[in-house]
Write a structure and sequence with these properties.
Layout (H helix, E strand, L loop, with lengths): L17 E3 L2 E3 L3 E3 L15 H8 L6 E8 L16 H16 L3 E7 L17 E2 L23 E2 L2 H21 L3 E6 L4 H6 L14 H4 L1 H14 L4 E5 L13 H14 L4 E5 L17 H6 L3 E5 L4 H10 L4 E4 L1 H5 L3 H7 L31
Parallel strand pairs: 3-12, 4-5, 5-8, 6-7, 8-9, 9-10, 10-11, 11-12
Antiparallel strand pairs: 1-2
Helix pairs in contact: 1-2, 2-3, 3-6
The structure holds P-hydroxybenzoic acid.
GO molecular function, one term: 12-oxophytodienoate reductase activity
Pfam families: Oxidored_FMN
Family: Belongs to the NADH:flavin oxidoreductase/NADH oxidase family.
């Protein structure tokens, strides 16, 4: 009989393989999209090669940081773009490094909408949105500094068509850079979410009012991108329950379920939901709300994100509440997170004060691997 110690240990649920459409994943721990504000001049930098490759495992799935789709898309310093030829060229070595280690890498396409200010806009113009209502809450991305946003300008219908096309071109660019697919950032109070939520969208035309109308622009973006690169390479990130950036909805379950159904109809590869418990961008709280009905309504791969750890991540997979779990802060501070979960050993602690600095090493590529821990 096999001795106890020699018996092959059964893999924890997070470390079991999963097939996401045409992609064969060797485990279920996804690198969550995270802005790191180290892309000087809105261009991916060579230090990103090391950062992403450190977090790559063979068959692992990584979602890149929010990348601006046009010259009006940025809202923070040093976030990368994907709208110019130079941006595409700059991403190529990063994508190549991830592929060399066997990872699957999606580019997150982002437009900040009104969560921006004059200084990030061409010629100092107002940021664009579905509305001209400014953000009134004190929004913070790093937990310390209040961002002061400039009042936005309401897009005309003609201009909305142009933004849809910007998303399409950005998706084409992402594929040209070598990314395996794209994730549309439709969460956290940025442009797409601004259209979705009735707390912001006050339009009286076909892009505002009813749920169907508010979802029109987001779904046009989805369709344009699916048409360009194939629905089997498109994911969408949603946060129906959140009100980050002063962007809340009066009926999150209805919004989340409707979007899940519509995305399902369009054969989108995955739906990536931020947990209702992430009531602020920083802390989780207990809540009775659940994304269960959205998981039910969506037929493709369901990714859950929001303050997960080894224990509740395993539980969510085992219970069928999600197919994959995205880890942000833990992955940021532990480049070898899957290994550490496998061995069930202590994690490096993350240092929030260096999340959003521009240092190319400290708080970025400087977190130690297991074998470097003293
Ligand atoms: C977010 O989704 O919360 C987010 C996106 C882009 C940023 C920062 C935060 O630059």
């Amino acid at each position: 009989m096999e001795a106890e110690g020699q018996r092959k240990k059964e893999a924890i649920p997070l470390l079991t393989p999963y097939r996401m459409g045409k992609f064969h994943l060797s485990h279920r721990m996804v690198l969550a999209p995270m802005s790191r504000l180290r892309s000087y001049n809105f261009t991916a930098q060579p230090h990103a090669v090391l950062y992403y490759s450190q977090r790559t495992t063979r068959g692992g799935f990584l979602i890149g940081e929010a990348s601006g789709i046009s010259d009006t898309a940025q809202g923070y310093p040093n976030t990368p773009g994907i709208w110019r030829k130079e941006h595409v060229e700059a991403w190529k070595p990063v994508v190549d490094a991830v592929h060399e280690k066997g990872g699957i890498f999606f580019c997150q396409l982002w437009h900040a909408g009104r969560a921006s200010k004059y200084e990030y806009q061409p010629n100092g113009h107002p940021p664009i949105s579905c509305t001209d209502k400014p953000i009134t809450s004190e929004a913070q991305i790093d937990g310390t500094t209040a961002a002061d946003y400039s009042p936005p300008r309401r897009l005309s219908v003609q201009e909305i068509f142009q933004v849809v096309d910007d998303f399409r071109v950005a998706a084409r660019n992402a594929r040209e850079a070598g990314f395996d697919g794209v994730e549309i950032h439709a969460a956290n109070g940025y442009l797409v979410d601004q259209f979705l939520k009735d707390g912001v969208n006050d339009r009286r035309d076909e892009y505002g009012g009813s749920l169907e109308n508010r979802c029109r622009f987001p779904l046009q973006v989805v369709e344009a991108i699916a048409d360009e690169i194939g629905a089997d390479r498109v994911g969408v990130r949603l946060s129906p329950f959140a009100d980050y950036n002063d962007c809340g909805d009066s009926n999150p379950p209805a919004l989340g379920i409707y979007m899940a159904q519509e995305l399902s109809k369009r054969g989108i590869l995955y739906c990536h939901m931020i947990e209702p418990r992430m009531i602020t961008q920083f802390e989780r709280v207990e809540t009775k709300s659940s994304h269960g009905p959205m998981r039910e309504a969506f037929k493709g791969t369901f990714i859950a994100a929001g303050g997960y750890n080894r224990e509740d991540g395993n539980e969510a997979i085992a219970n069928g509440n999600a197919d994959l779990i995205a880890f942000g802060r833990l992955f940021l501070a532990n480049p070898d997170l899957p290994k550490r979960f496998e061995l069930d050993i202590p994690l490096n602690r993350y240092d929030r004060s260096t999340f959003y600095t521009s240092d190319p090493i400290v708080g970025y590529t400087g977190y130690p691997f297991l074998d470097q821990t003293p």
